[in-house]
Amino acid sequence: MLKPFAIAGVIAGVLAVAPPASAAPQSGAGVYPPGNCQPGTFCVWPHWDHPNGVPTATPSLVTTTEWSGNITGFNYYNYTNRNAEISWSFTTQGMTLTGTDCAPPGDGFFYVPMTVTKVSWRTHVC
């Protein structure tokens, strides 16, 4: 009869010493660190200005909500706890390509200049 109480006590003890869940992923979880992108935001930078691999330029987009429009995006960082879907277009050799990328929390990339047209939140895993 005491065994269920002992197990419950152990679980309560583990939960009491466990660190709290964060609203944003740990810094540096992706390919590049978040630089000047603040926790809880999704950031897009218009060009490569990353001394020592860390973005310091002013982002062309900082959002905490879904967004649509047209901005130049060279790379991005998802510093939220949600999966983001990024819609983009890219013109090369007279041909325009369009697509979407899923950015899990702590992820960031592009590395070529694109036009970002939409950021939305996904309910499923990337």
UniProtKB/TrEMBL annotation:
<protein>
    <recommendedName>
        <fullName>Peptidase inhibitor family I36 protein</fullName>
    </recommendedName>
</protein>
<feature type="signal peptide">
    <location>
        <begin position="1"/>
        <end position="23"/>
    </location>
</feature>
<keyword id="KW-0732">Signal</keyword>
